[in-house]
Write a structure and sequence with these properties.
This protein is an alpha/beta fold. The chain contains five helices and six strands; from the N terminus they run αβαβαβαβαββ. Helix 3 links the parallel strand 2 and strand 3. It is globular, with a radius of gyration of 15 Å.
Length: about 150
């Protein structure tokens, strides 16, 4: 398994500047999926991503999610575990992950959803052309659809 922490000298980097990305993984009672999801993310991070950090936000889980998140953070340097004392819901977990993010770009991948390389490549293609890129699922079995949203400050 590739730990996805740092990449360099790829053909893609000559065409695109390196991307520093945080992936927030909100998790509530996801002991059955969180390890598989995080390891999948580490394996599929495209070479255009120079640095990646994955922040697992344990949203007050009552199962073994906390221990699994800590074990993943110990095993893989780019993984961090953040633990919330009580379940505050998906939005609260996402905000907590954003608060701990240290990379220039941030995306969200719920523990119960497998972000695909195609999904992530869609995000990356729009970076630099939009301030915010939002993906959504029309149906659970289909790919995400992406639309660039420009925000003026």
């Amino acid at each position: 398994m590739n730990n996805g922490a740092n990449r360099s000298n790829s053909a893609d980097e000559s065409d695109h500047p390196p991307v520093r990305l945080t992936i927030v993984v909100p998790a509530f009672d996801e002991e059955a999926l969180v390890s598989e999801t995080v390891e999948h993310l580490l394996d599929m991070v495209p070479c255009r991503i120079h640095e990646v950090e994955i922040i697992i936000v344990n949203d007050g889980s009552s199962d073994g999610t906390r221990g699994i998140a800590d074990a993943l953070a110990t095993r893989y340097p780019p993984v961090k575990a953040v633990h919330l004392s009580r379940n505050g819901g998906f939005g609260h977990a996402v905000r907590a992950g954003f608060t701990h993010a240290t990379k220039r770009y941030v995306t969200v991948c719920p523990a119960d959803y497998k972000l695909t390389r195609t999904d992530l490549d869609s995000y990356l293609a729009l970076m630099g052309h939009a301030d915010i890129v939002i993906g959504y699922r029309r149906e659970r079995r289909r790919n995400l659809h992406f639309f660039p949203w420009l925000v003026s400050a």
